[in-house]
Amino acid sequence: MGTIPEGMRNSCPCPFLSEEPRSGSGAGALGLVQTDIYAPDMHQPARVEYWDDEIDSLASFDLLTQRRDGSLEKIYLSPAREAIKQMVKHKILNVLGSNDKI
Which of 20, 60, 63, 83 gives 69 a disulfide partner, CB atoms 3.0 to 4.6 angstroms apart? Predict the structure, then answer.
């Protein structure tokens, strides 16, 4: 599906993205790593599974059961500040009425 961008690999201290040397078959490989993403403006969370540095799968999942709902082609992540600002503006407009200006 794709690879992890170089800048993203070192952008956050994620303990589950360990690159410790391994022995045996597949030595040096990272193996399967999964990351769950649930941004404020997303309807459902997404799970990204990596094999080594390749994106193996991308799917939505149910928060309660942790089961996949379906595969995704891509996800859009907006900056959290912008997403929250839009959500607050939308709620204020719902309370005031759509004809009012903020």
Answer: 60
